[in-house]
Model the fold of this input.
Amino acid sequence: MRVGVIGLGAIGRFLVRILNNEQAVPDCTITAALDERGMDVLKGKLLGVNATIRGFDRLEEFATSGIDIVVEAASKAVAANYVPRLLSRGIPVIICSAGCLADPAVLSKVEEACRAGRTHCYVPSGAIGGLDLVQAAGVLGKLTKLTITTRKPSLGFGLNGGTAAEPQTLFEGSAYEAIEKFPNNVNSSIALSLAGLGSKRTQVRVVLDPTTKGNTHHIHIEGAFGRAEVVVENQPLPDNPKTSCLAALSVVATLRALNQPIRVGV
Ligand SMILES: NC(=O)c1ccc[n+]([C@@H]2O[C@H](COP(=O)([O-])OP(=O)(O)OC[C@H]3O[C@@H](n4cnc5c(N)ncnc54)[C@H](O)[C@@H]3O)[C@@H](O)[C@H]2O)c1
Done:
């Protein structure tokens, strides 16, 4: 499987190391990359990585470079613009910036593009877990409550330090409002909403917590099935403290699942 990656940032570069250097998924390598920063800058960042990757700055050339699948790891705006265009030409996409799907117009464009291209858009579990449970619990509309509390230190919000010593709630409201306010921090809440009650009925609390080192997510699920809680204490990626290592690993797991005859947890 030849993979094209959009965005050679923290997730993109992690994927190059894991897929091309460590061959974490058999017969699966990144062969093409699209990044607005240009390949000259990125080649420096990829030093030490055993990768023969063609760099592109235009979607058209990238899409026709012989790739079988694309991983979007750039931003909400990039995903909204490029993902439907790739899907409609039959290229499946694994989307990291799940937040773009909170916009109903983008969501229906992506769905239409999947139908037109007879392909699929995959939303990995990202920095959280339990999406399988949420989907099962929601069958026949039997899910009644879905909340997520996201705690990050100041670096996790892209802030340099700060004076607060106590945890501080920055936001409380729907996932739909949360992704507007924190476009780079609450992608997980949109993945969760898509699995369950939708972004307007999924409740989000965002906490700036100077006492925590990593990015923590606490999810509560209630429904006819019973109740569940999922707590994930993430280690951030060294290249971007806003992004959890698990988010990048979940992309690798998705690529692996696509190659497996038996798929577990779907
Ligand atoms: N689903 C989840 O749980 C989850 C978790 C963490 C991050 N994310 C999301 O994944 C995405 C990538 O995260 P990251 O930490 O690797 O980000 P990053 O900022 O480290 O890297 C983003 C890369 O995209 C490139 N880029 C930006 N605009 C572009 C454009 N128009 N065309 C081409 N390239 C462009 C940048 O140059 C950069 O190299 C972000 O949207 C982030 O919010 C999702």
